[in-house]
Amino acid sequence: MSAPRSVSKAVRLHRASNRWLGPLWVWAVLLVLVIVAIYTVPEFASIDNAKNILRQAVPLAIVTIGQTAVIVLGGIDLSVAAVLALGNTLSMGLMDGGEGSMLLAILLPLLAGLLVGTINGLVVARTAAPAFIVTLGAASVVQGIVFWYTSSGPYGSPSLSFGELGFKEYGPLPALVVFFIPLLVAGLIVQNRTRTGRHIYAVGDDDRVAERAGVHVARVKVGVYALSGVLAALAGIAVATRTGSGDPLAGVGFDWDSVAAAVIGGAVLVGGRGTIGGAMAGVLIIAVIDNAMTLKDVSAFWQSTVKGVIVLVAVIIAALAAKDVLRTYLRRGPMSNFKHPPPAGSASKGGAGA
Amino acid sequence: MSRLTVEEVSKRFGVVQALDRVSFDVERGEIHALVGENGAGKSTLTRIIGAAEAADSGRIEFEGRPLDLSSPVAALSAGISIAYQHLNLSTELTVAGNLFLGREPRRLLGGVDDRGMNAAAAVWLERLGAGFPPDELVEGLSPSDRQLAEIARALSHEPTLLIMDEPTSALAAHSAERMFSVLRELREEGMSVIYITHELAHVFELCDRVTVLKDGRSTLTRPLAETDRDEVIRAMVGRTVSALFPPRTTPIDEAAVAALEVRELTLPEYFEDVSFSIQPGEIVGLGGLIGSGRSRLAKAIFGVPPERSYGPLDGEILIHGEPVRPSGPRAAIEHGIGFVPEDRKAAGLVLTASVADNISLPQLERISTAGVIRRGVEEDVAGGQVEALRIKTPSLETEVGDLSGGNQQKVVLGKWLARGSSVLILDEPTPGVDIGAKAEIYALIRELAEQKTAILLISSDLPELIGLSDRILVMSRGRVVAQLAQGDASEESVMRAAFDGLEAPA
User: Fold this and answer.
1) Are the Cβ atoms of B90 and A205 closer than 8 angstroms?
2) CATH assignment of B4-237, among 3.40.50.720, 1.25.40.10, 3.50.50.60, 3.40.50.300
C-alpha cells in the first residue's frame, strides 16, 4: 500500500480558499450585514456610498495587514494608533501645503514608523517582555511626541495634488483603493508564497520548534513589528488625503479596530493562525457597521458598544473553536467530559478489549 | 575512530545530580540503545549532546574533534539530528513544510517551491511507509502519524548521528517495524543512531550495543549479543532499599467500606477499564512507565479534564460507597479528596504567596467569616501544620518559592492535611527532594495512613513505591496489567510487569 501523493482536490481547494480569502463564514457575515443595511438604511444602497465605504476602509485595511502579521506571530501591536498619528502629522507638517517636499513628506514618516516598529520588535524579541505592554508603552511615548510636535492641534496641510487623491477616481474605483490593491496583493503573496510567510506561521505556532529547525526567530519577529510600524505610518498618510490637515488624534480607535478585524477574520491571539484575506473581511465588516450606523444617526457611544459586542462574540467563537469546546458542546452538551455514573444495572462496558 | 565519544560528563540541577561522570561511545554505523528508568538522565544527556544544555564537566568528541555547538541549528549543520518524543512539529504547517522548515527550496522569483518540497518529502514518507501525503497539515494527523512525520523530519536532514527519543511511544506497530528496516539500511550506509527507549524488545531487535543509565550514572555498556533482558533490567534498577520506610503498625480494616473505589473507569486514548478500591488507611501504589496513563487517571479522579479530549469519562467513582461525579477539582475537594500534583511548582503551590496563604487556600471557607479571613484562625491552622510537618521556614509569611524542595512539598501536603482529606492522591511526591526530607515525607505519609487516610501513590521512584505501598497496581498502556501484594513486589517485578504490558499484543 503506498501513500497518496497529495491530499484530495477538495481539501486543496478548501485550503487555498482559506489561505487567500480567509474563513468563508466571515464573508457570509459581511454579506448578511450588507443585506440588513440595505433594507434598514435607505441611504446605504448607492454606488457613491459603496465607494465611500471602500475609501474609508483603506487606512484600517493598511494597518490591519501589519496587525494580522503581528498576531499570527503570537504578538500584538497596540502602538499602531499612535504611529498612525505620527505618520499623519509628520507628513502634513513636512508637506505644509507645498508640492516641493512631497517625496520627503512621504518617506520620512514611513522611516519614523519603521523605527518605532523596529524598536518594538527588538524589545519583544530580545527580552521576555510581553508585546502587549511593550507596544502599549511605545504608543504612549509616540503619542506624547505627536502632541508635542503639533502642540495638540491641527498641524500642517496637504498639497493640492495630494489632497485630490482623497476624491480622485480611476475608472470606477477611488484612487486610494487603486493604490491599496498592489499592497494587498503583495501581502497575500508574502503570506502564502514565501519563506518569510511560512516562518511567521511557524514562529507563531511554536517558536521553539521554529528555532530548532533553523528559523531566525528574532529576525522574523523584528521584521514583522517593523512592517507593522511602516504600515501604520502609511495609513496615517492615507488618512491625510481625506482631511484638510494633520490631526494628532488621527489614530484614535485604529489599535482596537485593527485587532478586531484580524480576530474577526480568524486570527488567534496566541499565534499561528490568521489570514490577511479573513482580516480584510473583518475590515469591511467594521467599515459597513460604522457607515450604516452613521447614516442611521446612531450616536458615537452606541456605535462603540455595538462594535464591541460584535467583536466579543467573534472572539468568543474563535476561542471556543480553538479549544474544540464548541464542537463538543454542540454534540454532547456542557461538561460532557464528565458523565454521571450510570444508574445501577445499566453500567456501560467501557471499550473493553480494544 | 568512534563517531561520538562521551567522557565523564556530569550535570547538576540544584540538589539533583542528573548526570554523574557518564561515559559511552557510539561507533560509525552503530545503533546504540540508551535505556534507564524515568529520571535516570537520558534526556539530559541528549540535550547536552544536542547543545540545548551545557555540561558542568566532561568531554564530548564528535568525529574526533571536541563537540562545540552554539545552537540547535549548529547541531544540524554538524550532522546531528534529533527526533524528539514530544511535539516538535509546527501544527499549522504541512508535513513537507515541517520537513523543510528553515531551509525551504525556492523558485526563481523567491517564492517557496511547494511542488519540489512535497516531492522531496514524499520520498522520505514513502520510505517510512507513511499513509499520509506530504501536503497534509500536521494538525490533521493522528499521534502515530505525527511521530512518523517527526522521524521523517529528523531523517530528512540526512544526519551522520541521529538521536531518537522514544520514537515508538505513539507509533503503530507496523510503522515501528518499517522504521526499523529503514534504520538498518541507513546503518549500512554508515549512519549512527542513539536510540532511547523503554521498550526492551525493540532494543534487542534493533540495536547493536546498549548503555544503561541509573541515577545519572552509566552502569552498563555492552554489545546486545553478550547480554540479556534480565541483566539489563538489573542494571537499571539494582540499588539497595534503605531503611527509609517506617513499617505499618495498625492493620488495614478490610471490612470497612472502601474510601475510594473506581469501577471500569475509562477515558478514551488515556486509560481504559480501570477498577480498584482503597480501604481507609491503605496505601495503594500505581506503578508504570511515564505515559502509562497513571497520572491521567489520578487527575480524572480529582476532576481535572484532559488537555485534549477524545471522549467522555466513563465508569464509576465511589467515595465511601457513594457515587460521585468529579465535575472539577472544587467538587472533588468537597468530597474529601486531596491531590498533590506531579509538578508542585506549576500546579501545587502559589510560589509567590506565603506559607500561610498556601496552606489556607483549600480551606478558606472554614477560616473566614462572611468572606473575611480570620487571621488568628489562619495562623493557628497554618502554624499547626508547619509544626506537625516540621516545615523549615523562617516564618509563616515567608514566600514558598524561597523554601527548599522538600519543604515546599511539605507545604503542599500541609494544605490537604489541614483540610482533613480522607482520600489523598500523591502524584510523584518526592522528585527533587533530598534524602533527609524524603525520609520525613515518607514518615508523614505512613502516619496519615495510620490515621485512616486512604492514599493513592503514583511514583516512578521504585524503592519509594515498593517501600510505602501496601499493594501495587502496575499500569501499562492505560490498563492495569498487574497487581502485586507488598511481599511480592520488587523493583524487578514491577518493571517486568510494566515492560510485559508494553510487549503484550495491544
Assistant:
1) yes
2) 3.40.50.300
